[in-house]
Amino acid sequence: VSPNDADAPPRYGIDLNADVGESFGAWRIGEDEQLIPLLTSANIACGAHAGDPLTIERTVRVAVEAGVAVGAHPGYPDLAGFGRRDLAMAPEDLAASIVAQVGVVAAFATDAGVEIHHVKAHGALYNAAARDPELASVVASAIARVAPGTRVYALPGSALLAAATAAGLRPVAEGFPDRAYEPDGSLRARSHPDAVLTDSARIAERAVAMAREGRVVAVDGTTVSIAVQTLCLHGDTPGATEHALAVRDALTTAGIDVRAVA
Amino acid sequence: VSPNDADAPPRYGIDLNADVGESFGAWRIGEDEQLIPLLTSANIACGAHAGDPLTIERTVRVAVEAGVAVGAHPGYPDLAGFGRRDLAMAPEDLAASIVAQVGVVAAFATDAGVEIHHVKAHGALYNAAARDPELASVVASAIARVAPGTRVYALPGSALLAAATAAGLRPVAEGFPDRAYEPDGSLRARSHPDAVLTDSARIAERAVAMAREGRVVAVDGTTVSIAVQTLCLHGDTPGATEHALAVRDALTTAGIDVRAVA
Amino acid sequence: VSPNDADAPPRYGIDLNADVGESFGAWRIGEDEQLIPLLTSANIACGAHAGDPLTIERTVRVAVEAGVAVGAHPGYPDLAGFGRRDLAMAPEDLAASIVAQVGVVAAFATDAGVEIHHVKAHGALYNAAARDPELASVVASAIARVAPGTRVYALPGSALLAAATAAGLRPVAEGFPDRAYEPDGSLRARSHPDAVLTDSARIAERAVAMAREGRVVAVDGTTVSIAVQTLCLHGDTPGATEHALAVRDALTTAGIDVRAVA
Amino acid sequence: VSPNDADAPPRYGIDLNADVGESFGAWRIGEDEQLIPLLTSANIACGAHAGDPLTIERTVRVAVEAGVAVGAHPGYPDLAGFGRRDLAMAPEDLAASIVAQVGVVAAFATDAGVEIHHVKAHGALYNAAARDPELASVVASAIARVAPGTRVYALPGSALLAAATAAGLRPVAEGFPDRAYEPDGSLRARSHPDAVLTDSARIAERAVAMAREGRVVAVDGTTVSIAVQTLCLHGDTPGATEHALAVRDALTTAGIDVRAVA
Hints:
homotetramer, alpha/beta, globular
């Protein structure tokens, strides 16, 4: 740092991720071709809760061409439930499923000349691995077998972040600018009508606060500290691309670098 | 070669392969734990026509512990039909499916400290890739993307062996000591009652003839030349382990090395 | 008929059908709630190529509430391919699959107080049953086992219409106002860029010509006779609801009754 | 009853049921052709946790030809887990799934000239519906929609038996002669090494005690009262047919009628 920089503002950086590649056969979810170029890291469904081989292949290619980091997005093997239902898998079944799921995305990543940058669990698996240390350990150990040393995106303070660290992986805390937070820093349950924000300007404003100040205003008006390195944008909601654009613009205007987690 | 070896008999070697890992969930096919140690290379189902992640993991481990080469055994993604039915997949779907299938077995192989040794197509895909040059090219190109330079097991003279060579893969011609042959060297269709041999002694005798002399006696009594480097044993038929033992013994007694394709 | 009607124009009637209930789990296809009330008969996917139990239940209810006849729409059991790929099923497997598929829709129809009004095959099965008399016979016999005496919608002159008659079912010839026709009365293959019409006005005009005059203008300008009792509208294309509205309006304006096949 | 019968022993009757039709495609479980004729009622898998359309068709036929009552055996839609894993389905999804599953077996039953005699839930669904009144109500209501008035087999004292009664169905209490019981009448968990009995003579002896005296000796030696109308035999364990023969013989020798629940 040169003396001239003494009064320069500190530099912040934040990663923008979204779940993509969640189409299946003739069925489409999300506008991946528009959304992916606005991200810095892409969580690509692995064919278990969503996705199929050709969809994985194409999604990896779109990400690579856009210079977006390729991540795997494993979930419970439950197409009919889109991975959103708890499924009581035996630990060895779950571990093998995760190795297989990450392995498939890794095969297409290698084919496209890149490596797996991160792993993010999906839906019911994401939630279960956040709260259950045993299950989190199964998930983290499985990830470490197939993608040793990779980054794991999860909730700040979650069991999975701790398990990832214990498994020699790199924990990456994640914030949700379009989700309401409780005063204890947890996400407001979707059963509440105000659980999801839909106004692009407010979502973008919260993204900046999370990235620069490590805080978010909870539903009761209190300010909660959440130190996050990546922000999750939702790809399958109406206006997803518009929200992503607004968030990117606001971050850039605020002088925050939008870049994949190093 | 030293002068002393002048009168020594020539050395032959042959590989013994079988399709394994074809259980699914609670359903079992084959006696893999008994059969695999009798083989030199194992074709492991990839979860599309048979197999599931935990079955793949366990089958890879059994093979590695027995010192048996690990191969991938992709088929049409059709559990209900066990990959035995023609399925008119678009070329890009088929290619992506093969990358995904081989990629999954490769992930478990890497996890177990080995690499993919070979790929053998299953059932209806094996037959279609034998006779259809376009489809064979799709299959070979996909294999080359995920396992560059690997060996491809297929029928002598098949379209797939030619396509494998063209894709920079190593073609390995395969014989079936328990199957009857037509005078033109093709396999007798299973619709004939004499299409499959069940007598261990005869199967073993034919294995020796194929390995040492590159010939087999066809159904009309004529002798057909088939130069093969690997012999396929069937694991899901009654007496499979007994046949495998008989074949191994007969080959060893005849002075033929039983070893994986180099 | 009173003497005053002596000079009245003849009365025509036509059925309007569409494929509906083709969502699966979290994935949506079609705008069934808007489209179904514009139809007179609904072809409801049975869970094999598309649809799931809850989707079937809801689609049946929407149809019943709108007074639209409930039909079953069986296809090859191939979710990943949406029933659009040929699948070489054994005849007894195909027959059992059709009994099961129609049986599921029949269970929900009974639960909603109605009976199966008709059956229409989907995608690759529709095409295969149109051209292959043996397969058509398998399909028709299976339908007759689970819905004896029902109506079967199929292409005029197709093998399936003949097989339906032979199986004691009621054949119903179907026209496609949004598809181009060849001079021999067959549908122009989708590989041609002009295979599908997208202009609502032209689609509506062709619907009237098919319904009232039993004719359609082929791609070479010649007029082809096709006597049809039902017209198929496509629900999964952009503008589907708009096309359906235009067709209904044009038929009504032309004095043609839009009503389910009696 | 005539005076001559005054000293005659009372007549008892008991139903013998087993889970059958649990093969899938090329995979076989159970020896249905041997076992079914030894039963009086057959619980036929519906294609969701096991079974496929042709297997259902054939199993129904074997039962009908043997004069064995045809029942439906719905489970969680989870082939990979054989319906043995808890799956957090939304109530409306579970209800629709049960209507569809029972509806498929009913279609084949009707085709074979019989009606659904009873319904028995499978695996994790059986256990969940035994202990959870809300889920039991969902299951019973769904059964009542597709098979009104049918019999429901479940554990004595279970939530499902109560829910079945409330839904206008006929509750049938079930005993397990090859399972160990706790002193409170519950089944000993399978995690205990002595949870399953394998000695045919002891299984048969317990079957007689359950059928005639409504009691079973628990693992601590105390005698537990369990009034049951049907006994479950397991078809997928080694020696299943032998056990079934021993049970039938012992019941007949003891003067107990082996017959389907009236």
